[in-house]
Amino acid sequence: MKQHRLGIIGLSPGNGHPYSWSAIFNGYDRKEMAKCPFPVIPEYLNQQDPRTMCIKEGRVTHIWTQDPKISKQVARASLIDNVVENLTDLIGKVDAIILARDDGENHLRMAKPFLDAGIPILIDKPLTDQEDDLKEFVRYYQQGKPIMSCSSMRYARSILDLKANKKIGRILTASAVTPKYWRTYAIHMIEAVYAVMGGGVESVQNVGRSGEEIVHLDYADGRHAVVQTFAKIGQGNIMFYGEKGMALAGDPDAFFQFKNMLQHFIKMLQTGKSPIDWKETVEMVKVVIAGQRSLEEKGRRVNLSEIG
């Protein structure tokens, strides 16, 4: 069994993925992880069986963040052997990269050295929230560069169960609500909608306001979804409505969905095949961009065809 050497990149404000995702591969030091500034992470890690929690086919061997102090703190907590001073120092030392930041406006800049070097990369959601950067990512993909990007909501237990169980029939509409902000967190619910209902969104209209986004996704075949991001709420969920009933999704089992997502990334490294349709990834990013554009243009309905 090959154990892939992974380099992890962090840390963006409010996002503790370098701690948790590294621990899912490496295990963790309980005392050091207790110092993690995101208390929910040691809370759910401590609930796992240490004999079975780790993905054995990979190990995070190197870390870079913008602050060496943060890098060393994460390394101590998540048992990472090497801290590098410069982002590009990871090249030649690892087999793949995990870009564990959710600031999409910085993703292309940080991913570019590794894409140019042909190193496979997992990019946290959203892939980007910039139209020009999306064009560049598409160009890299067309060149055969191995890229995976998604929200772990795609791999949540409730979403997987709903996909497997067709008891509510053909789904005609969905209503999704999440805390925080459109540019960083809407992708969680967009990804859940796409995982269950598939792609084919034609237009997007944002009738909310900043911090209270209410966004209508209009499918070309007549189906609909509404995605809301509210900065001040504490928790969200998603309801799907089908011809035979309805189903609630959005379970809070972060560890399950993170591990499931990371296992799919390892499978991509093993097979060379992305587990997610690239066209679907691109379309979801266009939904994010269109939702922001609609808000800026006072609720204008934005067709995805407008976005290159």
Automatic annotation (TrEMBL):
Gfo/Idh/MocA-like oxidoreductase N-terminal domain boundaries: 50-143
Pfam families per UniProt: GFO_IDH_MocA
InterPro entries: Gfo/Idh/MocA-like_OxRdtase_N, Gfo/Idh/MocA_Oxidoreductases, NAD(P)-bd_dom_sf
GO molecular function: nucleotide binding
Superkingdom per UniProt: Bacteria
PANTHER family for the chain: BILIVERDIN REDUCTASE A
Protein name: Oxidoreductase
